[in-house]
């Protein structure tokens, strides 16, 4: 101790100044290297070394499974070409306004649909259910005005006026089924009347569609009406518990109109097959629609993850996996979950019930919170049914953000996460719902630590330069 005291007493202020400048310079270099490594590789170098090399030496183990290996670049490039950033899609599983959305409003006093969402639906109805030849049929002229009405009662009144002019006006029955029917049973009755009228009009249009461009437009409209009615009838059967009947109706509809794949009827089919627990049939549908050249959806990505998780989730344990490593089946399941989370990062919080659900909107934004709400609303029960699936999801989903810490700027398998989703989701989702806005940029702890260390060392160097005698006394003390 006396030797150390003598040594310190002989040191001059220049030594302390040189020491603090050197430490400041070294900590600055460490900070710059940490920042560069994080920007290039997405992880903190110090944290990576401590987790990979130091923790095993002191007996620790990381609980979460390692991130999966990279997928092929071909799928990434194809996904970029096929994934529009902020296109709004019709929700394949949207509810019935009269029988479901209105019931929610009666009970809670809250409006479940936004004006923007309903306005998009009005535009859809005008595109699907009207054409240039409506002036030839008075009932269709009335319905053309009905779809533009903002007041629900005015629309319903116009539908009855159209039926007075033509008792076989299919679109009038569609409007009544959607908005006037107070139960699914009532809606199904209206849709059956619409189906009878729609099939008759469709056959007439088929016979004369080649006569002129106007007749071709009329056939397209009548086809849209028929497909819409059959799909909604299948959804009514699904809601009323006649699931096998619903599956048959959906399969028949997809075979009869294979070119209308943009309506995403296969997502209705997937949900119904999951309810039947017909997992082999679900896999067959996924094999057809989970293709590199086709646009993805949360239903496709998360259903694929669910099937792979089903094979291993019952026996999966994070503690056991960290000791023995992951099996091939477990790696496939983890990779599928990472893929799904990268596509839509909002879904896990709803499936894990960390965030409350609301009724899904009539339109969704792919990769957005609105799509996550719509998926979880119908598929949460399917995840709960498979033992251990939610546990596996809970243990692995956050690893996606360690693998891609800047999802707004770069992606692994898909397009970089679109930055415009928050604005669009706020328009689609009701005001009382807290819109999910992550993933957000988060710097690792060691980047903050090295920045603080660099700043502290620089401050010491400055103080030593300005007050050398005082800093020497402080250092010796």
From TrEMBL:
<keyword id="KW-0812">Transmembrane</keyword>
<protein>
    <recommendedName>
        <fullName>Suppressor of tumorigenicity 7 protein-like</fullName>
    </recommendedName>
</protein>
<keyword id="KW-0472">Membrane</keyword>
<dbReference type="InterPro" id="IPR011990">
    <property type="entry name" value="TPR-like_helical_dom_sf"/>
</dbReference>
<dbReference type="InterPro" id="IPR007311">
    <property type="entry name" value="ST7"/>
</dbReference>
<keyword id="KW-1133">Transmembrane helix</keyword>
<comment type="similarity">
    <text>Belongs to the ST7 family.</text>
</comment>
<feature type="transmembrane region" description="Helical">
    <location>
        <begin position="445"/>
        <end position="464"/>
    </location>
</feature>
<dbReference type="Pfam" id="PF04184">
    <property type="entry name" value="ST7"/>
</dbReference>
<dbReference type="GO" id="GO:0016020">
    <property type="term" value="C:membrane"/>
</dbReference>
<feature type="transmembrane region" description="Helical">
    <location>
        <begin position="15"/>
        <end position="36"/>
    </location>
</feature>
